[in-house]
């Protein structure tokens, strides 16, 4: 039986891969045959991811990176190309959040979120895109958020919500420009998933029971299927799309 999610022979790059969703994305890509470069600021955490992937029989290259550093992005992408020979899949996942009332949000805090969660996506896509265009193949998956589709009234997250709201149009714009090169660009918009950035405590669980049709937080494996589909050759006719995986929150 054919495995439609087989990524054997593909090379993937995952940013924000030292913890949370990024770490799970990297492991899932490796488990399905991809060689994976994991990028984040915390190299010691990346080494842990590398050890997990290699223990399961995969191949992993840890690369320390601050996605807001343009020269660092250029160098990191070149390091992956030098090591693996190409890049087929990019998962833009590095993120930042500031839970602060808007009247108290400093320009520095605003800029930091924008730099990581939007400018960082641009820099990674631009540099990886050069290799993908040359090879006439690519799969780019951007991590958005359901709070890029709806604002929510639970927390004051102006900077986070604004950058995540930009992700769908960033995705559409790249998709239409790069389709001619056999590059698809799609986005995943997660709802509430437990992670280092999102603590799902009893109060959050109560909110989810009230607010979402499915009535609970997400499980990481419920994100991975969509990630793997977007990363595979079998998503070749899907581009420019943002898929909310949120228990139905944005459907209500």
TrEMBL record:
<dbReference type="Pfam" id="PF00106">
    <property type="entry name" value="adh_short"/>
</dbReference>
<dbReference type="InterPro" id="IPR036291">
    <property type="entry name" value="NAD(P)-bd_dom_sf"/>
</dbReference>
<comment type="similarity">
    <text>Belongs to the short-chain dehydrogenases/reductases (SDR) family.</text>
</comment>
<dbReference type="InterPro" id="IPR002347">
    <property type="entry name" value="SDR_fam"/>
</dbReference>
<dbReference type="InterPro" id="IPR050259">
    <property type="entry name" value="SDR"/>
</dbReference>
<protein>
    <submittedName>
        <fullName>SDR family oxidoreductase</fullName>
    </submittedName>
</protein>
């Amino acid at each position: 039986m054919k495995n439609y999610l087989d990524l054997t022979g593909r090379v993937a790059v995952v940013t924000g891969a030292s913890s949370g969703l990024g770490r799970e994305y990297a492991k899932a890509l490796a488990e399905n045959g991809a060689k994976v470069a994991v990028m984040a600021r915390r190299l010691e955490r990346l080494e842990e991811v590398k050890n997990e992937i290699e223990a399961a029989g995969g191949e992993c290259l840890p690369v320390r990176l601050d996605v807001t550093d343009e020269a660092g992005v250029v160098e990191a992408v070149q390091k992956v190309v030098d090591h693996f020979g190409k890049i087929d899949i990019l998962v833009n996942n590095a993120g930042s959040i500031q839970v602060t009332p808007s009247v108290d949000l400093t320009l520095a805090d605003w800029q930091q979120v924008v730099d990581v969660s939007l400018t960082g996506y641009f820099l990674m896509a631009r540099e990886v895109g050069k290799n993908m265009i040359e090879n006439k193949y690519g799969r780019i998956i951007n991590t958005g958020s359901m709070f890029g589709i709806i604002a929510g009234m639970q927390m004051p997250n102006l900077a986070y919500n604004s950058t995540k709201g930009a992700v769908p149009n960033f995705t559409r714009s790249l998709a239409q420009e790069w389709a001619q090169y056999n590059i698809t660009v799609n986005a995943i918009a997660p709802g509430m998933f437990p992670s280092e950035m999102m603590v799902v405590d009893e109060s959050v669980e109560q909110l989810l029971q009230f607010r979402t049709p499915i009535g609970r937080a997400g499980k990481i494996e419920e994100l991975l299927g969509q990630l793997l589909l977007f990363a595979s050759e079998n998503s070749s006719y899907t581009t420019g799309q943002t898929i909310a995986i949120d228990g139905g929150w944005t459907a209500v």
